[in-house]
């Protein structure tokens, strides 16, 4: 962030701000190239995949995916695992038939359904790898028999993935990659060729692929800061280095939730997210008191989303283990006082 701040005033001693430099300048083209290479290196993206930087957030991808791939006479399959999966489903329905292969709505999305069939005629199956609000995560992407599309907005770069398991991955940048404003897409070139032909340019993945993500003015500052952040990630031992720390952070917090008599986790143990830890207090009084107790100790941003309630602690890459320790210690101290 210090480097980003400095570059807003004077980027690499050029006497120009990163905010005013032309996106067609060789210096910025170099940033785009470097960022793409960092994405490729960190996630071991094979050569026959394209790395694209788009705009409109992951929410635009909810529509762009079916606009490109839900072709006439086909249907698309979706796994309904929560709030953002539902949003993706809603948009897909505007473009054609949608089949929901399974849903965990029956238990307020506290688990990931693992028994379902996908119609082999489906245009694709859509997954949400990490359910940001409900605190569940998919760890097994077994062969689907149809193209696999995955919304990885809230767990990309947090753990190793096998890009070959997917035909298209998308992610809003703002969790583990950089500032909001850019959306990462990693897509198999062969799959992109299956897209419908008549698509507005700004919604056509191939237009971005053929123009180095610069068909129009790209989100210059977001891409630049993402590059700095991915350099930081590389310094942390890359994705496998950060994954070890993310496992450690999640283990520590879940262990306290399971031990502490005043709290309990909402997600099924096998599907607990390492990025978003959701938990409830035994009653509303404890919940309100702990929120205050935590705030008094500088712990903020842990209130759960209204559909789940309770608490949600997000443990994205940038959060150090020491912050999790502060929360865990506060939970233990609160238990001593309260019970
Ligand atoms: N999908 C998931 C899993 C998310 O967590 C979010 C945002 N929190 C979105 C989609 C929507 O992303 P955006 O705000 O970039 O449109």
From TrEMBL:
What EC number(s) is this enzyme filed under?
2.6.1.52
Q: Which residues carry this modification: N6-(pyridoxal phosphate)lysine?
A: 175
Per the database record, which ranges form the Aminotransferase class V domain?
A: 10-325
The protein's assembly and partners: Homodimer.
For the keyword Amino-acid biosynthesis, the answer is: yes
- Protein's cellular compartments: Cytoplasm
> Pathway involvement?
Amino-acid biosynthesis; L-serine biosynthesis; L-serine from 3-phospho-D-glycerate: step 2/3; Cofactor biosynthesis; pyridoxine 5'-phosphate biosynthesis; pyridoxine 5'-phosphate from D-erythrose 4-phosphate: step 3/5
Task: Name the lineage.
Answer: Bacteria, Pseudomonadati, Bacteroidota, Sphingobacteriia, Sphingobacteriales
| SUPFAM superfamilies, alphabetized | PLP-dependent transferases
Classification via Pfam families: Aminotran_5
This protein's UniProt keywords? Amino-acid biosynthesis, Aminotransferase, Cytoplasm, Pyridoxal phosphate, Pyridoxine biosynthesis, Serine biosynthesis, Transferase
Q: Give the catalysed reaction(s), semicolon-separated.
A: 4-(phosphooxy)-L-threonine + 2-oxoglutarate = (R)-3-hydroxy-2-oxo-4-phosphooxybutanoate + L-glutamate; O-phospho-L-serine + 2-oxoglutarate = 3-phosphooxypyruvate + L-glutamate
Cofactor detail note: Binds 1 pyridoxal phosphate per subunit.
Per the entry, which co-factors are needed? pyridoxal 5'-phosphate
* Protein name, UniProt field: Phosphoserine aminotransferase
Which residues does pyridoxal 5'-phosphate bind? Answer: 58-59, 84, 132, 151, 174, 216-217
Name a GO molecular-function annotation: transaminase activity
Keyword Hydrolase listed? no
Could you tell me the gene encoding this protein? serC
Locate the residues binding L-glutamate: 24
Q: What protein family does this chain belong to?
A: Belongs to the class-V pyridoxal-phosphate-dependent aminotransferase family. SerC subfamily.
Q: What does this protein do?
A: Catalyzes the reversible conversion of 3-phosphohydroxypyruvate to phosphoserine and of 3-hydroxy-2-oxo-4-phosphonooxybutanoate to phosphohydroxythreonine.
């Amino acid at each position: 962030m210090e480097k980003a701040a400095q570059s807003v005033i004077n980027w690499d001693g050029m006497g120009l701000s990163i905010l005013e430099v032309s996106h067609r300048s060789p210096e910025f083209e170099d940033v785009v190239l470097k960022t793409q290479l960092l994405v490729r290196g960190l996630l071991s993206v094979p050569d026959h995949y394209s790395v694209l930087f788009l705009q409109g957030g992951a929410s635009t991808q909810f529509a762009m995916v079916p606009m490109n791939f839900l072709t006439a006479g086909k249907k698309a399959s979706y796994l309904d695992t929560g709030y953002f999966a539902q949003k993706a489903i809603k948009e897909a329905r505007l473009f054609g038939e949608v089949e929901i292969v399974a849903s965990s709505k029956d238990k307020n999305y506290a688990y990931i359904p693992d028994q379902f069939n996908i119609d082999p005629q489906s245009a694709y199956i859509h997954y949400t790898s990490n359910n940001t609000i409900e605190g569940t995560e998919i760890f097994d992407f077994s062969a689907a028999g149809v193209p696999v599309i995955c919304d990885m907005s809230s767990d990309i770069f947090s753990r190793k993935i096998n890009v070959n398991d997917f035909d298209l991955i998308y992610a809003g940048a703002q969790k583990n990659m950089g500032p909001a404003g850019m959306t990462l897409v990693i897509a198999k070139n062969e799959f992109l060729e299956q897209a419908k032909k008549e698509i507005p340019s700004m919604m056509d993945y191939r237009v971005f692929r053929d123009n180095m993500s610069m068909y129009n003015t790209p989100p210059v500052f977001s891409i630049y800061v993402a590059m700095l952040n991915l350099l930081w990630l590389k310094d942390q031992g890359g994705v496998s280095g950060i994954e070890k720390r993310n496992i450690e952070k999640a283990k520590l917090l879940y262990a306290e939730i399971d031990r502490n008599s005043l709290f309990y986790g909402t997600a099924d143990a096998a599907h607990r997210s390492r990025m978003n830890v959701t938990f409830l207090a035994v009653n509303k009084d404890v919940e309100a008191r702990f929120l205050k107790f935590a705030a008094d100790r500088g712990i903020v941003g842990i209130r759960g989303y209204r559909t789940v309630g309770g608490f949600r602690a997000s443990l994205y890459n940038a959060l150090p283990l020491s912050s999790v320790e502060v929360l865990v210690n506060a939970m233990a101290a609160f238990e001593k006082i309260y019970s």
